[in-house]
Amino acid sequence: MKLGFFTANYTEKPLEEVVELVAKYGYELLEIPAYEGNGQLEPEEILKGNNAAALKKMVARHGLGIAALSNHPESFLIMGPGGEETDFIFKGTKAEKVAYGTARLIRTAQAANALEVPVVVGFPGVENWGRFFPFPYGQGWAEYETDFAEKFVPILNKFKEYGVKFAIEPHPNSFVYDIYTAEKALEMVDNHPCLGFNLDPANIIYLGLRVENFIDRLGDRIFHVHAKDGEIVEHNMAIGGILMHGDWQRLDRTFRFRIPGWGSVQWKKVITELAMVGYHGVLSYEHEDVTMSRMDGIEKTAEFLKPLLIKAPYEGRTDKLFNEFQTGKPKSN
After folding, report:
1. Residues near 89 by Cβ (< 8 Å), separated by ≥ 6?
2. Is the Cα torsion angle 267, 272, 273, 275 positive or negative in sign?
3. Phi, psi (deg, nearest 5) at residue 208
């Protein structure tokens, strides 16, 4: 396993400046945003001339590699919402937003292919997350399941063409938000080989799930992992409940995003389960902790997580006595 860094934590800085900064703290792999105008990577530019090779060379010069591209905002348009709430991403009709989000996600896969990056991370979106509750329209969520298949199978086929996988990040207010909806998404696309998940432990515990259960049930479809913690503020739960809304800096919030080691995620158990299902990829640090600066997070996350990361899988016992016991073959005289 390797420690990664989501460069969207510093979109106001040029990419090379961010790479140089995090290399000093032992980060090894990058997750780079690819939505339009992010200031660090534009898919159209990557596809021109030798730009992909130049970017890879720059990253390697600082001793890092690229684990994933991400396009959370534009992929979110594919299933919605399609109204004014997503105008900040792209302004247009609902149909225009779907077409734009689809084209941009596919273009991100093209850029990933050019960079020899195996994974694109994103959200599928959902028009009205409130439909998870059966009243007043009990068949509403089933309609979203059909919509997901119709919209994403063609996208996943393009991903397959480019040799790239799409990792949905389970998240509240999106079509995939828990274990059951993750499994249903796979079912709806006939277990398409290019569909999997970006495991963000904070998003999982937000709704009261155990991260270990997600890993054990969906381990072979975990293509990427976010190193992000979340704090269930237990003394506030009796006030606002699990779905409390409002400003993230409210003192009485029941949930806060935190840096790894400062929240409720049991990281040794999470890393153990990841190893047990054969995941030996990146843990990509994303900063959303409203209690401290990004530099605090960079320093503290590296100090906390690097000693926990498993560098190689178990080799098995090699001593003679143990091998004879396992095989049932007695030692010959």
Report:
1. 35, 73, 74, 76, 77, 97
2. positive
3. 90, 10
In 3D space, the residue among 207, 201, 139, 202 whose CA is nearest the CA of residue 173 turns out to be: 207
pLDDT at 249: 84
Task: Look at residue 93 in the predicted model and tell me its pLDDT.
Answer: 97
Region 113-131 average pLDDT: 96
The answer to whether 105 touches 155, Cβ cutoff 8 Å, is yes
Q: Where are the domains of the chain?
A: 2-327
End-to-end CA distance of the chain: 44
pLDDT score at 326? 63
Assess whether pLDDT exceeds 80 at residue 219. Answer: yes
- The single residue listed with the structure tokens 């935190």 is 258
Among residues 82, 78, 97, which one has the least CA distance to residue 151? Answer: 78
Rounded distance between C-alpha atoms, residue 283 and residue 304, angstroms? 12
- At 207, the amino acid letter reads L
Phi, psi torsion values for 219, nearest 5 degrees:
-55, -40
Residue 327 has a pLDDT of 63
C-alpha distances out from residue 88 to 37, 50, 92, Å? 12, 32, 10
The class that CATH gives domain 2-327 is alpha beta
DSSP 195-259: EEEEE-HHHHHHTT--HHHHHHHHGGGEEEEEE-EEEE-HHHHHHH-TT--S-TT-TT-SEEEE-
Is residue 65 within 8 Å of 107, Cβ to Cβ? Answer: no
Q: Any residues with CB less than 8 A from the CB of 327 and at least 6 apart, and which?
A: none
> Given a cut of 90, is residue 328 above it in pLDDT?
no
**Residue 301 above 90 pLDDT?**
yes
Which is higher by pLDDT, 69 or 245?
A: 69
Are 255 and 232 spatial neighbours (Cβ–Cβ below 8 Å)?
yes
Among candidates 165, 163, 185, which has minimal Cα distance to 174? Answer: 185
